[in-house]
């Protein structure tokens, strides 16, 4: 199942080399690599060129809970993964939180992640990223994340189909979502 991507998928060894060369990732490099292995095993036919490009210069910084209410946050413009260590506790699944951000890193095209073009579909993008994270590694913590967005995205998926959201997400194509929604019978144009 390849979604409009012509060319070979990035090889795992190449991504490992990129991780090894990035000195900013010392503390989390091995954890990121383990998550990348899972992602590539379960999603072998998506494009990994954005992931390679973004991993090469990715920075990781701690952020205060007073500056950011999220557990983690990826800023694509600065290519920085912020981690709110003060908010994360034993009830959180850190692997889940990191996979969520790895999906944002893997789909950041220089302008936006997934299909979140101009923040137009932000809630659906958050929901779909959470759904994909759950599909890839589950959640072994005692907390769930982004529940409202997941419900909204599941409803949208019932209307236009999961495959449509998948294709739009991994091809950074917000218009594919809106065009499919408009083409649904009974939706006013």
Short description:
The protein is mainly alpha-helical and 189 residues long. It has helices spanning 12-21, 29-42, 49-57, 94-107, 122-137, 147-160, 162-170, 174-183, and strands at 59-62, 72-75, 80-83.
Q: Can you put this structure into words, describing what you see?
A:
It is globular, with a radius of gyration of 16 Å. The relative contact order is 0.12. It has eight helices and three strands. A hairpin with a 4-residue loop joins β2 and β3. Helix content is 51%, strand content 6%. The chain is mainly alpha-helical. It has a three-stranded mixed sheet with strand order 1-3-2, with helices on one face.
Keywords:
three-stranded mixed beta sheet, mainly alpha, 8 helices, globular, disordered N terminus, 189 residues, single chain
């Amino acid at each position: 199942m390849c979604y409009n991507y012509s060319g070979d998928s990035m090889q795992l060894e190449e991504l490992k080399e990129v991780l090894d060369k990035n000195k900013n990732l010392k503390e989390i490099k091995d954890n990121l690599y383990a998550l990348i292995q899972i992602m590539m095993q379960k999603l072998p036919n998506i494009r990994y060129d954005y992931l390679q490009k973004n991993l090469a210069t990715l920075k990781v910084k701690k952020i205060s809970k007073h500056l950011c209410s999220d557990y983690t946050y990826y800023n694509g413009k600065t290519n920085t993964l912020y981690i709110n260590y003060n908010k994360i506790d034993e009830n959180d699944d850190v692997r889940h939180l990191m996979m969520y951000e790895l999906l944002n890193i893997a789909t950041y095209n220089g302008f936006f992640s997934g299909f979140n073009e101009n923040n137009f579909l932000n809630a659906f993008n958050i929901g779909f990223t959470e759904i994909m994270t759950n599909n890839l590694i589950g959640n072994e913590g005692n907390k769930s994340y982004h529940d409202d967005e997941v419900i909204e995205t599941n409803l949208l998926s019932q209307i236009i189909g999961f495959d449509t959201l998948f294709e739009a997400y991994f091809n950074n194509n917000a218009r594919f979502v809106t065009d499919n929604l408009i083409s649904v019978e009974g939706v006013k144009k």
